[in-house]
Amino acid sequence: MASPLFVIEDLHVSTAGENPVEILRGVDLTIGAGEVHALMGPNGSGKSTLASTLLGSPEYEVTSGRILFKGEDITAWPTDVRAKSGMFLAFQYPQEIQGVSVLNFLRQAWSARKGIDLSMLELRLSIMEWMGRLDMDPSFADRYLNEGFSGGEKKRNEILQMAILEPEIAILDETDSGLDIDALRVVAKGVREVRSSRPDLGILAITHYQRLLDELQPEFVHVLIDGRVAESGGPEIALRLEKEGYEAWR
Length: 250
What we know:
Blueprint: E1 6-15, E2 22-31, E3 36-40, H1 47-54, E4 60-69, E5 72-73, H2 79-85, E6 87-90, E7 97-101, H3 102-114, H4 120-133, E8 144-145, H5 151-165, E9 169-173, H6 181-197, E10 202-207, H7 210-216, E11 220-225, E12 228-233, H8 235-244
Parallel strand pairs: 3-10, 3-11, 6-9, 9-10
Antiparallel strand pairs: 1-2, 1-4, 4-5, 7-8, 11-12
Helix pairs in contact: 3-4, 3-5, 5-6, 6-7
């Protein structure tokens, strides 16, 4: 039997530096290839801390527990090694990078991820194909990364990166944050489009909005309360959450 794609085992995480504060207090989560999981929780529950920890942010320190990716313990791996191995994080607030075009950024990221160089023509053709599938203006390829982009354009650009870089696990950290319902639908359609090309892609969507779940339709839903997964199950958990709120799990 194949090992799960991604496993979080009894993960305890504190802020780094002096006077550490424990935020995650024993998180357990398992994601198989091709599965879509949603992690929901109120503000301050530790959702974004978990996303940052999974990608190796120096702001947080794993005090116990471990993270496994394709059967390997990656708990101590630096961020760049995690990314090259096939992990991807779509940021809640994507950064603007002046002077670096979307095309050049993707070329550098692709080279680092795959260990080979694509010609600009090959990459541009691939990007144009995906921009068409994601309903993106082709001129974005030559604009500086996220500079002057609307919230929805930034999030669509993250989905473009996910499509081009072909990760095996994608962590979407509040991808719906700041989006109106139309922009959210476009982003969710983009995620579905990527999954149609890569059916083995595992996804962890972190959110506190039911509307993202309506669009992505995850098979598994987890509720994070005070740094722990209080309950895991299917879509029925999200429906209960909609009716009762987080108080039902406190």
